[in-house]
Amino acid sequence: MKTKLTAFIATLLLWTALPSQAQFHAELGYRYGLGLNEQMLGECVYRDQYKMYSNTILLNFMYDITPQMSAGAGVGFTLCETGSHGSLPIYATFRYSPLKKVPGFYAFTDLGYAPPIGPGKSITWSMGQEQTRYEGLNYGWLWDLGVGYRIMFRKHFGLNFQLCYNLQQFGGTNILVNNETTQQSYYDISDNLRHSLSAGIALVF
Fold first, then answer.
1. Are 86 and 117 in contact (CB under 8 A)?
2. The whole model's pTM is what?
3. 160-179, pLDDT tens digit by residue?
4. How far apart are CA 205 and CA 178, in angstroms?
């Protein structure tokens, strides 16, 4: 673990220490998500039924292919304010600036996957009822589509703003199910799918 952390810090320092003409940038940012609806166990739940807010810390490594086109990779850590959602997605990102007179404005898309992290699935019995639960960070696909604006104060220092639509799968979500026939409650595992609108800000190095 210490070796991986040391390598990660060394990589970040290397990127920030590149010469001024370099086309590489690192971004460290925060994104706030406002959930619109979420599909779980075959049903669609809306935000007026429970709060679908999320907080995400992002780290991106970008390469400017041309003055109008950039690509890179990133990792995020997402925690939701309600429910048991939490994930660590790894994703690829692509940006395109269609307006030459406003080079800081761009459209972007992200596509990635959050691997399962933690003990995983467990099955126990309580009062004769099977209890299936998932312990750990949620797994699943991630897709973003939005617009952003990057303003650079120096070659390796600036700010990046983003607004986007977010589609994220929270696999391994524990849902409490009430059986009306037996009048018993039990947990079931659901691969939830959430639709959100997100806004974020990041430091650019």
1. no
2. 0.81
3. 999 999 999 999 888 877 77
4. 51
